[in-house]
Amino acid sequence: MSEDEPSRGRSSKVARVIEEYQLSGLGAELEAAWTAPESERRSLRELADHVNRQIVEAALTRGGERPLEGEIQTVSAALAGDTDSATERDVRTRLEERGVNVDQLEDDLVSYQAVRTYLQNVRGAEYEPAVADPVQRTRDRIQGLRGRLRAVASSQLDSLAESGEITMDDSRVLVQVQVYCEDCGRQFDIEELLDRGGCNCD
């Protein structure tokens, strides 16, 4: 039995796609990410997005493609219904032109509930949250939102570049959150502010 095969009970959708798309090691990766300490842990939704990107990449690679990360994100978001209808139609058309079975690929994408079922019922994983202090909880929440904004911005820019609406070579989206103190006029990156315990101005 491989590390990604069911360890008990019936198989799950996630176990099936891991085997079907030959995503070796993904099961252990998901378990480690879900049971990691709070500051490093990834949510079930983030893990589902990760699985779906792996599925899309594998499907495109089967056809001899070498997809870029931005394209993988765009296709995954479009098939999950997280883009506008025009982008979704464009993505489906391009996939069909490449000979990809779009309906099958769409059906193979997983939900966060499916990931949870796989981790708990197949791998027997359990997450026991540590009691986090309010500052760390705020830090984790901001980091999560910043990561999602970065992914959405990158996906949309890649989509515009692919359609010829804008001209852009390889790029990297940076998301910063700055906090300005009205009392002393100083400005901090929010991570720095949290590390300092506040502005501490006189």
Strand-helix topology:
Layout: H1 13-20, H2 26-34, H3 44-62, H4 69-79, H5 85-97, H6 102-108, H7 112-122, H8 134-162, E1 178-180, E2 187-189, H9 190-196
Antiparallel strand pairs: 1-2
Helix pairs in contact: 3-4, 3-7, 4-5, 4-8
Summarize the structure.
With 202 residues, the protein is mainly α.
Polypeptide structure, described:
- This protein has helices at 13-20, 26-34, 44-62, 69-79, 85-97, 102-108, 112-122, 134-162, 190-196; strands spanning 178-180, 187-189.
- With 202 residues, it is mostly helical.
- The protein has 2 domains: 13-132, no CATH class; 176-202, no CATH class.
- The chain is flat and about 65 Å long.
- Pfam families: RdfA (PF21811).
Major β-sheet profile = 2 strands, antiparallel
Bin the strand percentage: under 5%
The strand line-up of the biggest sheet is 1-2
- Give the termini distance in whole angstroms: 64 Å
What Rg is obtained from the alpha carbons, in whole angstroms? 20 Å
- Amount of helix: 55-70%
Mean pLDDT across every amino acid position: 87
Class per helix and strand makeup = mainly alpha
Secondary structure tally: strands: 2
Q: Supply the number of structural domains.
A: 2
How many helices does DSSP assign?
9
Q: How is the quaternary structure best described? A: single chain
What's the overall geometry?
Answer: flat
Low-confidence stretches: 1-10
Helix and strand pattern:
HHHHHHHHEEH
InterPro entries: RdfA
